[in-house]
Amino acid sequence: MSKILEVKNLVKKFVKANGDIHTAVNDISFYLEEGEIFSFLGPNGAGKSTTINMITTQLSITSGEILIDGESIVNNPIAARQKIGVVAQHNNLDRGLSAFENLVYHGKYFGMTQSAAESKAHELLRDFGLADWKDDYVKSFSGGMAQRLKIARAIMHEPKLLFLDEPTTGLDPAYRKILWQHVLRLNKENNTTVFLTTHYMEEPERFSDRIAVYNTGEIKAIGTLAELRKLVPSESIIYVTLDKIPLGLEFRLSKFQTIKNVVKKDEKTLTVYPHDSKKALNEILSYLDDSQLKLENIQLSHTTLDDIFIHLTTENKGA
Ligand SMILES: Nc1ncnc2c1ncn2[C@@H]1O[C@H](COP(=O)(O)OP(=O)(O)OP(=O)(O)O)[C@@H](O)[C@H]1O
């Protein structure tokens, strides 16, 4: 496998309105192998779009280097742009063109013939439920319609490297499914590499080969889901919800042999990281019973990407 994207010591600093310098991306390095689906996850304002915007040549770099297919995007931005497709967060459709024209002009810019571009545009407009709107100006489109057209445009020319910046925001479940059908087909048939940001954790959990968790300008962890699971205190979690958590309960439960650690999730729920989940569950139940504490709910679950994300991006790490 070869590296389709290499990001080396990338930094972005912004000057804020009050003159302060804000470092949105703080010396990050990572790479993407050709053909992989990579998810870049982080809380709001972490710097994900800033990173994508630099890689896709829409935003200047403060320092560092970005290579697409081995070539610097600063030295040759035109070559870089030919290889990528981007669903940006903002609406960057041409509002003065119809939906059909947006797609056909885009396809032709990327070297498609008129007839190939027209036939692909018809296919994508049909798949994304826009066939009846093909001649309408995009300025009349709803947010969800514009998002669907942005997705169709990004995949028109079947790019080598596809950037999806929160692509399913504003899409209903049926269109989410259609988006993923197209993306997975491109990935399988054309070996298209996918760089995804999203706040819907089930998408990276289902589709990613590797995941990076990113916060305050830095990559906190990177790897497969199985590798990231090893970074949380245990592979399963028990959530214990009581009508009220009495003082010191966390501490008392954390002393059990079967339990690694306990942290307060919220006012009513404790997150318990067990050594042995079944034994811990039984011990917790009998302890609560003996102590006459009112249990509202107890749930044992496999550690999800949500749990990993929260663990890696919040101060109270529970380990
Ligand atoms: N043009 C700009 N000028 C000043 N600060 C900016 C600019 N663009 C982004 N920022 C700041 O950089 C930080 C990162 O923003 P960015 O949009 O990359 O975050 P994000 O991870 O994509 O967030 P979200 O999940 O909310 O989309 C934020 O604090 C934001 O306010």
TrEMBL record:
GO function terms (MF aspect): ATP binding; ATP hydrolysis activity
Domain ABC transporter per the UniProt entry, residue ranges: 5-241
Entry annotated with the keyword Transmembrane helix: no
Annotated Pfam families: ABC_tran (PF00005), DrrA1-3_C (PF13732)
Keyword list, A-Z: ATP-binding, Nucleotide-binding, Transport
SUPFAM superfamilies noted in UniProt: P-loop containing nucleoside triphosphate hydrolases
Top-rank taxon: Bacteria
Coiled-coil annotated residue ranges, if any: none
UniProt-recorded name of the protein: ABC transporter ATP-binding protein
Organism for this UniProt entry: Vagococcus silagei
Lineage, top ranks: Bacteria, Bacillati, Bacillota, Bacilli, Lactobacillales
